[in-house]
Design a protein that fits this description.
Blueprint lengths: L3 H7 E8 L5 H12 L12 H7 L4 H6 L7 E6 L2 E7 L8 H8 L3 E7 L6 H12 L4 E6 L8 H12 L2 E4 L1 E4 L7 E4 L4 E4 L14 E3 L3 H8 L1 H17 L5 H5 L3 E6 L8 H11 L6 E3 L2 E3 L7 E9 L8 E9 L1 E3 L3 E4 L4 E4 L4 E4 L2 E4 L2 E3 L3 E5 L9 E4 L11 E2 L3 E7 L5 H14 L3 E5 L7 E5 L3 H14 L3 E6 L3 E5 L17 E4 L5 E5 L2 H10 L5 E2 L1 E2 L2
This protein binds guanosine-5',3'-tetraphosphate.
The site of guanosine-5',3'-tetraphosphate (G4P) has 16 residues, from helix 2.
Length: 531
């Protein structure tokens, strides 16, 4: 055990974002394989049978073979201690997916070479930009036929508004995928297909200056194309600039194939070199450095009932400074109480492991007797400060909730309020009316089922959900200056308020948002709710 600053400097904490099926799980698996955390790729696989065996959280998960939880994986590689935050996709896309990004210092964006930028990537990317999170791009599935890579880079730049800087460059794709050209080393690394799950194929490294060997290896035609493309890249692509990368204004781009395990280790090595050690965090007392001796953390996610047998609630915290030791006494700032964090856990895939110590950059899950809220600060008992809050993200699906048995009003209100506090759903009320009518907003539709299931199972309340056509919600940034009663909206617009009484507007389409802005001079709307 080195000293605690050494431990902190070893840490790299990042999230992997992608559209479902781009290869996030496969890439994560290969990372773990290099780290020696698993022996055979396949053990992280979140699909079908594999997960049923280890996770018993919620029937929904079992029935549908999807995971409602997002996990944190820790492994060691080349002297680094790496924390990967998985961002749930598919239907289990939820606000947690966004919040996970609040706990990361950088993000790896996996893009399917033949599909380009897809919806979910776009959404997650927006959050990265808001937080200026550095983004590293891995263009996956090069072993399948892909289009023109220059066009793909153009698409990334245009669609996402970030400059790209290829660190390596593919030679061919699909059956004729030959390997990648490393621009730094000015060498070609050739591809050899390997059995799924084996560690790595044989790699030959050929300097491009050795043209005879290059032609012998990839053929004259590909060698010529490569020479042309290198020229084009050198002339046209953005210069590599670590400062800009760290500010999230430039993304380094890598190419490879997670499935056949090509380009993964090259990517991992460069990525670890380029990404940051745990970053300082903004608090009301200024920036808190990770290397400060005193332990501090914030809660970015709360998960109820992960294990039905335990019926517990876990608060996930990102450690922002110092060292954490099991059983230490800390202050929960928002709750105004001191407490002992016992049984801290690291969640490895769906298994839990009790940990004794953890450092800034790490994520721990602690047992929550129902006291924590998203964004809460934990610090040493002699300290008192709060970390900058976590924004509320715009739900995209809305439904009116009706209770079937109106006698159970109290349980209903209690249940729905608690579930909203955990951050799984957001609840709104009609503006100007009482609690009679509740509108629920969610980021992913699965959360509706989760809500229904949990109200029935935990609070014994049956509900009916009636879908509403709204797709856009906006917070009013300058609510003090706006008279809500006089706001001129479109006919489809609905005024609501959140649990804290903040006014919000619901719209059926983006056009109405624009129209309402046009009709009300000075109105400032936001897609993120600040505290
Ligand atoms: P996700 O986590 O982003 O949703 O994607 P995941 O890794 O589960 O990959 C989705 C599918 O794409 C999987 O196929 C996987 O094997 C495949 N895949 C991932 N990386 C590559 C790659 O580099 N090249 C090719 N050709 N395929 C890749 P599946 O058929 O859905 O699952 P499985 O039956 O292979 O497990």
């Amino acid at each position: 055990m080195g000293n605690y600053t050494e431990e902190i400097h070893k840490r790299r904490t990042f999230a992997i974002i992608s559209h479902p099926d781009a290869g996030k799980t496969t890439l994560t698996e290969k990372f773990l394989l290099y780290g020696g955390a698993i022996n055979l790729a396949g053990s992280v696989k979140g699909k079908a049978t594999a997960r049923h065996a280890v996770s018993d959280w919620m029937e929904i998960e079992k029935e549908r073979g999807i995971s409602v939880t997002s996990s944190v994986l820790q492994f060691h590689y080349d002297g680094f201690c790496i924390n990967i935050l998985d961002t749930p996709g598919h239907q289990d896309f939820s606000e947690d997916t966004y919040r996970t990004l609040m706990a990361a210092d950088s993000a790896v964006m996996v893009i399917d070479a033949s599909k380009g930028v897809e919806a979910q990537t776009r959404k997650l990317f927006k959050v990265c930009v808001m937080r200026k999170i550095p983004i590293f791009t891995f263009i996956n599935k090069m072993d399948r036929d892909a289009g023109d890579m220059f066009e793909l880079l153009d698409e990334i730049e245009k669609e996402l508004g970030i400059a790209t800087c290829p660190v390596n460059w593919p030679i061919g794709s699909g059956k004729s995928f030959k390997g990648v050209y490393d621009r730094n080393k000015e060498a070609v690394i050739t591809f050899s297909d390997t059995e799924k799950g084996t560690k790595e194929g044989e790699q030959t490294i050929i300097p491009v200056s050795d043209s005879d060997k290059l032609i012998a290896c990839i053929g004259e035609e590909y060698a010529q194309t490569l020479t042309d493309e290198i020229e084009l890249l050198d002339g046209a692509s953005a210069e590599f600039d670590l400062e800009e990368i760290r500010k999230g204004e430039l993304t380094p781009v890598f190419f490879g194939s997670a499935l056949t395990n090509f380009g993964v280790e090259i990517f991992l090595k460069y990525f670890l070199e380029m990404t940051t050690t745990p970053l300082p965090r903004k608090a009301d007392i200024g920036l808190v450095q990770p290397t400060e001796k005193e332990f501090s953390a914030f809660v970015f996610k709360i998960q109820a009932n992960m294990n039905k047998a335990h019926r517990d609630r876990i608060a996930f915290m990102r450690i922002c400074s110092g060292k954490f030791e099991a059983g230490m006494e800390v202050k929960h700032v928002q709750g105004g109480k001191n407490l002992r964090l016992s049984q801290p856990q690291q969640i490895m895939a769906s298994e839990r492991k009790i940990i004794e110590e953890a450092y800034a950059g790490d994520i721990i899950g602690v047992f929550d007797p129902g006291i924590f809220s998203i964004g809460d600060t934990i610090c040493m008992i002699n300290d008192k400060f709060t970390y900058e809050g976590i924004p509320t993200f715009a739900p995209e699906h809305f439904a009116r909730v009706r209770q079937i048995d109106t006698m159970k009003r109290k349980q209903f209100v209690k249940g729905i309020t608690q579930i909203a506090q955990e951050g799984a759903i957001q609840i709104f009320q009609e503006y100007n009316t009482g609690m009679e009518e509740i509108i629920v907003g969610v980021v992913g539709v699965l959360q509706f089922d989760v809500l229904k299931y949990r109200l029935e199972n935990e609070y014994n309340v049956e509900i009916k959900l009636e879908n509403l056509p709204y797709e856009h919600i906006r917070w009013i940034e300058n609510k003090e200056e706006v008279n809500l009663d006089r706001l001129v909206g479109t006919s489809d617009m609905k005024k609501v308020k959140d649990m804290k009484g903040n006014p919000l507007l619901l719209f059926v389409n983006a056009w109405s948002v624009g129209m309402t802005l046009d009709r009300n001079e000075g109105l400032v709307l936001s897609e993120f709710g600040r505290e």
